[in-house]
Description:
mainly alpha, about 0% strand, globular, about 60% helix
Amino acid sequence: MKAGRPSWTAELMAFFRALESVRPAASRLFEDPFARHFVGRPFGALLVVAGLPGGATAITRVIERRWGGPLGSAVCRTRFRAALAAQD
């Protein structure tokens, strides 16, 4: 981590949460209205593209091909934690 900057992995997780949040309500697993505020310009630009028809699907495919797993893991973990919190 560089001084004065958030960690890349923290920003990436915020991006993954924001990406899930821009999906149509019927198909998203959760909504995180704050996640987009924790991403910098490059990820912010991708979120603009994700808001266009087919954009989120295209970005998700690229992420999964390149890294294969972190996006799904982050989204599932967030949804699971939300379900646990709802039980309390």
